[in-house]
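Shipment paperwork, digital attachment
Item: protein structure file
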Amino acid sequence: MTTDVRAVPELPLSAVEEWRASGADLVEVLARAQREVGGIAAIPLGPTPSVLVTDPVAVQHVLGRHPDRYVKRSHRARMLVGDGVLSATGDAWKRQRQLLQSQFTGTGMRRYEQRIAEAAQRTAARWAGYARTGETFDVGEEMRRFALDTVWRALTGYPLDDDAERELAAVQRVVAAMPTLPADSGDARDAVAEDLARIDAICHAAIDAARSSNASGVLQVLLDAGDQHPEYTDQLIRDELVTLLVAGHETTATTLTWLYLLLDRHPEARTADPQALVSETLRLYPSAWMLPRHAIEDDVLAGHHVPAGTDILVCPYLTHRDPTLWPDPERFDPARFTATGTRPAHLAAYYPFGLGARACLGTQFALRETTALLELLLPAYELAFQSTPTRAAYSITVRPDGPTPAVLLK
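Attachment content:
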């Protein structure tokens, strides 16, 4: 090791103990570490060394340049998604990603344009009904309904029906419960066993239906893979289906809900370009607020020694709120993402869908469905919230922690 390589600066243990005593969220201690220590900060969270990474150069090193040195370990969502592409590692992950990637990039996306448009039109028709009746509805639930309908069409070829919607609500319940589940994986599964059983039942019913129909969709691609590759058992196909349901609707619904909450606080932004609105919302509330990795060998990270066995906490949420990168970072300003706007030059200053080899497969799909819906709703309707959540909840996504009842103004 050369003499100019130094240890990672550390947040004092007393600060962590103070955080634990106060009952503050983990994100608050991470934000304190970023403020007081910097964009590469060791944090004494337990027996395993932990390093927070928010500096763009270090983020690019970990996620973009050396994913072989900084790997994913057992994912907290594994009890839900099993061996799907979100939690898979090694050669299995490479095979699974390669199969799915063609479905959500380039020409593969064109096959879903009509399905996205139909789901958006269905939601717009519902909103027209709310406008006529003055009915109060929950914006978050509406956005989950739209996003779930969209991804269900992409997966199965069919619109979401009432029975499927009711059963698939179990997915959102499990995701929401994750931060409070027991640390032991068996106890955690037991705590949500009923919902997991519901999810298994509807997924296996969808697999059986796809085998007996001519509908096209990602599920059919997975079944065709099963004909050629024995590793694509019904269990793995179920895991991929659940993975795509989680990744394909929870993140989109959360982004759209935050966007409308932000517009409630900043009505002057209503006329902004929908893509800029979405991009700025994702800056403040990225699809995955934390991207944990594990160092499997010694490394030098932006001049700092990182020993093998260190847990790396890459945090888009905090990178996107770093005042040295984003002037006035807490301000909602879609103009940052217009042709005349000012953004940080470094690629890894903005990575709401991750970065590098394990970046989100469905980025193009998610951006297209959000803009397709906004193009219909924003010009036609103005929302008035009856109450709004006062805080965020940090799970797989960062979501509003509470209901979002609203009416449409005539």
